[in-house]
Amino acid sequence: MFWNNLSVAVNYFIEIALELTVLFIGITFLVGLIQEYVSDETIKKAMGGRHKVVGSIIGVGFGALTPFCSCSTIPMLLGMLNAGVPFAAAMAFLFSSPLLNPVIISLFVILLGWKIASLYFAITFVGTVIISLLLDGLGFASHVKPAAVVRSCCNGQQADDAKSRIQRSAGFAMSLFRQLMPYLVIGAGIGAFIHGFVPTEIISRLAGPNNPLAVPVAAIVGIPIYIRAETMIPIGLALIGKGMSVGAVLALIIGGAGASIPELTLLSAIFRKKLLIAFVVTIFTIAIVAGYSANLLAL
Questions:
Q1: Which of 37, 82, 130, 239 has a CA 20 to 30 Å removed from the CA of 215?
Q2: Which of 55, 138, 137 lies closest to 90 in space, CA to CA?
Q3: Mean pLDDT calculated for residue range 276-286
Q4: What was the pLDDT predicted at 174?
Q5: 140-177 b/e with 16+ CB inside 10 Å = b?
């Protein structure tokens, strides 16, 4: 029995690890290429001087095109606010950046199917726009600290000819892959262990679709433990195979990717306490709505 389970786990690990590697490098290269042609100044200019709703929608779109690390996204957010970009648009950018990047969406499509991926995208997109406008309407813009400074860990480069842009995009993809490869391997490894050795009955009983508390508990657990979405997706796929509800997995991914401890630490340099709490509540709310909606879709 043990050797049979081990064989199943090893096969799962190899399959998932290879699939994630190919997807991650390919899609990240395309994102890097887009970033070569869309500068930070272009983003700020496009989001400024527009109707709040339009600006928020544009903010969500640009959020999906930014680098995936908080140390890049948050300095970009600060630059937007200092440049006079409307608060709602800047917040839409902040919420969408970790949750709607093309790598996560593509992994959802490949591993969980287009229905779940579409549901995730729609709820996150619409929820981000609505909550950003609501925070703006409630006056949360006044809770941004004045003259805050957060340094970026990423060095900007000037694009020139097409060959250089392609080379930098390839370098961006490989650099990011090297940074995140341990997370991908760990995620695939944990997923393989769950797939091969963890009894289905345990997970189904604790976090299956018949447990109404599985979704909010997963969202709460995800927020403080900083699970990168790229790590959690292969784990989540194995958990779903063992009986965990799709909704609980989505809530765990959104909570971990959207409000990690490193990101909250950086945001504390920009946001006062009330706005920081509102940020966490927003991520939790999106996780809950997406989770329960996914469970309904799976019925």
A1: 130
A2: 55
A3: 90
A4: 83
A5: bbebbeeebebebeeeeeeeeeeeebeebbeebbeebe
Measured from the Cβ of residue 62, the count of other Cβ atoms closer than 10 Å reads: 23
Instruction: Check pLDDT > 60 for residue 60.
Output: yes
Q: Which residue has the tokens 């939790």?
A: 284
| Token pair recorded at residue 218 | 């997963």
200/143 Cα distance (integer angstroms): 47
Q: What span, in angstroms and rounded, lies between the C-alpha atoms of 36 and 51?
A: 27
- Give whole-number Cα distances, 249 to 203, 241, 264, 286, in Å: 12, 11, 22, 13
Which residue in 264, 268, 276 sits closest to 224, CA to CA?
Answer: 264
Provide the pLDDT confidence category of residue 150 given band limits of 50, 70 and 90. very low
Token pair recorded at residue 168: 């930098």
For the segment 109-147, what is each residue's pLDDT rounded down to a tens digit? 876 788 888 988 999 899 999 999 999 999 998 998 775
Contact status, residue 53 vs residue 133, Cβ threshold 8 Å: yes
At 208 the three-state DSSP class reads coil
Q: Determine the distance from the C-alpha atom of residue 3 to the mean position of all C-alpha atoms in its chain, rounded to a whole number.
A: 36
- The burial class, CB within 10 Å (0-12 / 13-18 / 19+), for 53 is middle
Q: What is the mean predicted confidence (pLDDT) over 250-272? A: 78
Contact 68, 62 (CB under 8 A): no
DSSP state of 212: T
| Separation between Cα atoms, residue 195 and residue 218, nearest integer Å | 19
Helix (H, G, I), strand (E, B) or coil at 144: strand
